[in-house]
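SAMPLE LOG
Freezer: B-3
Tube label: C17
Construct: single chain, 296 aa
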Amino acid sequence: MKRGKKKAWFYSMPFLIIVGLMIVVPLLYTVEISFTNMSIYHWKDYHCVGLDNYKKALLAFDSGFLPAFLRTLLWTVSSMALQLIFGFFVAVGLNAKGLKLRRVYKTLLIVPWAMPAYVSILLWRMGIFNTEFGLFNQILKQIGGKTVNFLSTSGMAFISCLVVNLWLGVPYMFTMMDGAMQSIDRNIYESAELDGAGFWKKHFYVTIPQILPILMPVIIMATFTAFKQFDIVYLMTMQTGSKTGADINTVITYVYEKAFITSNYGYSSAVAFIVFVIILVLYKTMNRREFSISEQ
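STRUCTURE (predicted):
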């Protein structure tokens, strides 16, 4: 038995070393400099400042972290709600009886997921939301309306980014839901229909309970993806040389801004570690919820 354990450790050692070098060491270094005033001005002569960086992030509202955190929560909840609702109804539609060209529809609907995110985001920014020649403003001009600068105000920019995130996220969500729905025994639906269940009751009492245990890992993954979303917010409103003026910083773009624009490495490391702890707690909570649903 002991010999087998030694052999297992021997074979696992290269992987553990790689994990240590790529994850554990950078994490420990981040924690170390989070207690310092390291910045571009104190690159070599930095010193320990204790918990000042953490106090600034968590207790000073004008530091920008707390508004960014609250906005991230709103972003995550809104993104997940929209993706679940749209993904569910698209999957229900694709599983409707008598639907022809089902595979064609699935192929077309999965195109946004297949496209590189960078390309999709810039297409939305320049081709759809652009003030001068974007599709939405061209339609408004044709019907006599005024042009709208979708990305200049925080509210409109936030909604516009949600639309882009919905476009990118729904294909994955409906694909997972479609697979889960196809695993449901059709006899259950027939029994529900015989009992007088209509469209809403049938899906609320049959479909959702049946697919929820299968979807929980998908929901957890999509939640973390939304929480740490960077490219949509950055490319739509914050890209260097083409900032729109909207302030919709999330915690991830906030960390990026403090680390690579203002070069305040000590403070940005403290914020990054706070975000790491938040994600860890969120993961533990959702994982426990997934386990309880699976047990039921």
